[in-house]
Amino acid sequence: MINQFSKYQIATAIAILFHTVGLVGILVFKSDLIIQSTAFNLLLSFALLIWTQENKQRFFGLFTALVVVIGFAVEVIGVNTGYLFGNYQYGHVLGPKWQQVPLVIGVNWFIVIYCCGVCVTTLLEKIIQPVNAAEPPQVLKAISVITDGATLAVIFDWLIEPVAVKLGYWQWQDKDIPVYNYICWFGISVVLLALFRFLPFDKRNKFAVNLLLIQTMFFLLLRTFLD
């Protein structure tokens, strides 16, 4: 029976199941166990993205490693110096930490950057490009993937910020989320999406599009209804 379904469909079903359980657990049952399982959910999403990636050649592995390492490194700088993002500290919800940063945070950077990059690439190839008779210049496509993807990543960060604070993922020293946080998010996302665009690996992944939509709905509902 399982052979009748593609791995994209299986991965999407798993993601919907776990995010639905999380949503009900947080909103209805106020479950600390569900909140504390956030790191597991991130690792599961990461594993599903890797599983559904076609043609996992060395450049995809290089991209994954670079995003995880750079994502973790900028958070270490941010938390310990305040030079990036602003003055904030991580709580204990996201699991074990090193240099005051949860080890899983690099994985979170990969999920956001990869999903945003795939979504913009898919939008260009499936919707915008067929409308135009002429093939757009490669430089314009690269600029679109990098800047539009970074903008999408910033919007996603804006969506989750109030939820993350309420759930204890992290806290801002001055309570208000600074605009500087979003400026840094955009700049770092541009760098990481440039790696996404120019490293030669397969940019098609239906599950990445589905996962970003699932996570967007998840955090949108939490932002709307979480006390």
Description:
This protein is mainly alpha-helical. The chain has one domain. Strands 1-4 form a two-stranded antiparallel sheet. Strand 2 and strand 3 form a beta hairpin. Helix 1 runs parallel beside helix 8, helix 5 packs across helix 8 and helix 6 packs parallel to helix 8. The longest helix is centred in the last third of the chain and has 30 residues. The relative contact order is 0.17.
Helix/strand class: mainly alpha
Count of DSSP-assigned helices: 8
Tell me how many strands there are: 4
The proportion of strand residues reads: under 5%
Order of helices and strands: HHHHEEEHHEHH
Rg calc: 18 Å
Number of domains: 1
- Oligomer state of the chains in this structure: single chain
Helix content: over 70%
**Unreliable segments (pLDDT under 50, ≥5 consecutive)?**
none
Mean pLDDT: 94
- The strand line-up of the biggest sheet is 1-4
Shape: globular
Specify the biggest β-sheet: 2 strands, antiparallel
What gap, in angstroms, lies between the N and C termini? Answer: 42 Å
